[in-house]
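Appendix B. Raw example, untouched.
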Amino acid sequence: MHRRTFLAVLSSAPVALAACAAGADEQSQARSTEASAFEVTKTDAEWRKLLTKDQYQVLRKHHTERPGSSPLDGEHRPGTFHCAGCDLPLYASETKFDSRTGWPSFTAPLPKAIGTSVDRSLFAERTEVHCRRCGGHLGHVFNDGPPPTGKRYCMNGAAMIFKPQGA
């Protein structure tokens, strides 16, 4: 590659990155406007009032919490993990495992608890997991989990609340 070609490519990189970022932002906005397809719907102002700042950013704006920041990653008591937005039971504690990723991980959701969609942000294609009742973003599912499913449902702790068994 000639120096002139390299400089031309280099100078166009910020424009390409800005376009990709704009596309990712548009995808995020499009996903958050599909709320009418869910049983539980609220205005943005209602979600902001109901949720903590971190819960709102994860559930409604599709953000990801910092790895290791959620106390739910270390939660090992018997019980159920529920959606922080609408209280739908999502995962049984029996399916939780230590993925060593810094996020709560599960091998399988409860029946009829989640929905999935294609997430093409961050220059990759992943399977996004959302609450089937309110559409809140929970995390992503990967095919590198342990038996019996081989799946790793890598969830944001901020998107869930834990209810101990018998409580």
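End of appendix B.
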